[in-house]
């Protein structure tokens, strides 16, 4: 069985994050690696306003807000 290591596979594959540089990809990086919920929400809002994976950004932002017990604010968005 072959094991993945950082020399054999790209960073985004090893760490299971999306490749790229758009606001949605940045939001997922902040969510999964940096684990900063406030920054994640701001990046998802930027992705939505820029038209970058809007459906996914809405869904993921809703999940983060629910985890932060901010579900009531979702109906206002």
From TrEMBL:
<keyword id="KW-0539">Nucleus</keyword>
<keyword id="KW-0677">Repeat</keyword>
<protein>
    <submittedName>
        <fullName>Uncharacterized protein</fullName>
    </submittedName>
</protein>
<keyword id="KW-0802">TPR repeat</keyword>
<dbReference type="GO" id="GO:0005634">
    <property type="term" value="C:nucleus"/>
</dbReference>
<keyword id="KW-0175">Coiled coil</keyword>
<dbReference type="InterPro" id="IPR044961">
    <property type="entry name" value="MS5/SDI1"/>
</dbReference>
């Amino acid at each position: 069985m072959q094991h993945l290591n950082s020399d054999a596979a790209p960073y985004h594959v090893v760490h299971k994050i999306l490749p790229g540089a758009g606001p949605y990809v940045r939001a997922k990086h902040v969510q999964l690696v940096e684990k900063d919920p406030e920054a994640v929400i701001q990046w998802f809002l930027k992705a939505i306003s820029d038209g970058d994976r809007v459906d996914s950004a809405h869904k993921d932002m809703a999940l983060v807000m629910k985890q932060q017990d901010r579900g009531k604010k979702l109906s206002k968005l």
